[in-house]
């Protein structure tokens, strides 16, 4: 079997999986006389996306050419299902092979399962082993701070973002706005909001609701009116949510 055949079969497996033809994809996978890491990782990822973690784990355990993508995919599958014990077991087994994606996956898993303190501890461990955080890391950490009301930590993360010159796009910007609003620091939230060159509907929604929940009903209405002047059509649901807090 040529490398070209392996690549072609991998592409077919990926296409079948995306269209929900998982059994057909698995039959093709089993019929391949030769497989590369991409072949194995495609099947692991497909099963994980469908929540069939047991099947994904069987493929993972059979995989003779595990790479960091294989480990990250199965850890992510466990995290998405809230099975942190299994995710942590594999995370520990990886040892020094972990990359930033591995750490981001575990941190996001903690946040998703509302283990916010553990998410922050994982970040501290990430720093201790000198793995560079990314914008994805920051988004997860800001979510943890928002839920904990940990303004000091949130401010430290914001300062870290500036120091490392991370690009504050709409995703990271919205995370900052949400964190500051939930921690009651409205001036900081407005600074971030007005400093964004590009805003999406989630940024507008976060600042409107944040102003309302902190007792700034008039300011929430003003932002809502400003929203109408932008390319986004105003949604009364945003205003209603804000006014609930007035």
Automatic annotation (TrEMBL):
Q: Which UniProt keywords apply?
A: Repeat
List the InterPro entries hit by this protein, alphabetically: PPR_At4g14850-like_plant (IPR046960), PPR_rpt (IPR002885), TPR-like_helical_dom_sf (IPR011990)
Keyword NAD among record annotations = no
- The PPR repeats extend over 5-39, 67-101, 200-234
Q: Which GO terms describe its biological process?
A: RNA modification
- GO molecular function terms attached to this record: RNA binding
Keyword match Repeat:
yes
On the tree of life, the source organism's domain of life is Eukaryota
> NCBIfam families in the record, alphabetically?
PPR (TIGR00756)
Q: Can you tell me which family this protein belongs to?
A: Belongs to the PPR family. PCMP-H subfamily.
The protein's name in its UniProt record: Pentatricopeptide repeat (PPR) superfamily protein
Name its species.
Actinidia rufa
Task: Output the lineage of the source organism.
Answer: Eukaryota, Viridiplantae, Streptophyta, Embryophyta, Tracheophyta
